[in-house]
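<given_protein>
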Amino acid sequence: MPEFLTKRAGFWHYARRVPLAYADLDPRGVIRQSTKIRVADDPRAIRAQRAAERINGELEAFWRAAGTAEGAEAKARYDRARRDARRLGFPYITAVEVAQLPIAEILARFDVVAAAKPDDHAVEAAALGTVEPPALDLDGLFDEFEALMKPSLKGMSDDQVRRWQSPKKRAIANLRTVIGNKALAKLTRVDALDFQRWWIGRIEVEGVEIETANKDIGHLNKMLGKVENTHRLGLGPVFSQLRIEGGRTGQRTAFAPAYVQNTLLADGALAMLNPEARRILYLIAETGLRLSEACNLTAETIRLDDATPHVQVRPDGRRMKTEQSERDIPLVGVALMAMREHPEGFPRYRDQAAGLSAAVNKTLRENGLLPSEGHTVYSLRHTFEDRLTAVEAPDKIAAALMGHKYRRPRYGVGPSLAQKAEWLQRIAFRMPGTV
């Protein structure tokens, strides 16, 4: 039987029990509504299912709106009580906490209430703590978590913040799909197990990657843990130890250097890409830059006229992945050619590395230029590291070029540009169109 559909008096009817999360807002218990479609006219419920989906969408929108309005009203009452308490000279605390104060402080609060107008309930609420704090729920989880994490987001660009936000919001939205909006204090291990089972079902039926599910579980565990530590909700480790076993880390596969030279760098092979995208690929193939590092180069960090032409990887309004990511990379081969064509960088893709990656990977895949599912644009960085290994570049040189931490104590200023350029010349690709 299709979801939420039942047969009644020869017609298809929508029927759904009000989720527990909305039981206080909708007392009807079970919602029943005719689709007005006869079973005889639609025996497989194809049209009825579409009608049920429409009814269900409207109903869930109603529940969400009711919950949002109630939550907003409760928050407004609480915020007003806190402001009034400060105006009266008291910190706002709940009635339970007021009762635990020394008797002199309790009497001082009652004196303020007695001095107010008889019908001034706002003063009473502020002084005696009769307004309960609004309950945190799933809909407010991300905003609360983000507020607690603000210091750690300092220095991120807008795109980095967006990429930090998106998977966490998606995890909450997925959990909400399973259990509805629910007060955080009422979340249980059963809710978490239901969410895990929902993901297992998707993995089995839709072929979703196990690690996609585990990322959701991990984000929820971290967010709830942070909020729990701050607000003492009494949750316990609701989402801990729920990772689904059997997942893969998704390690990207390196291109063979010969494939890069003979296929990707063949004359005209990347003509389907626009000039900026094409030359960003040339740049990262030759330098091992991360895509975000290449996209955010500027006229100030592209040094073509220096004795050793090079690019400078700097924060420039972004947070660097690691401390070692800040580095100078000499330009040789196809990278030097690319940057001479774009001496001011790639404005079309500045702070848009994620979008460029998705678009280029899609284009390369559609044109048969990715040898396997494991290959992506980022594979060029793995290829770069393999090429350094093949010529036996010293670990200190390789770490300085890759932006990795050098595992031994650091002395001096590290390899010079000339030294790094010498090793890059040993692995430089030939120009497209040359033999």
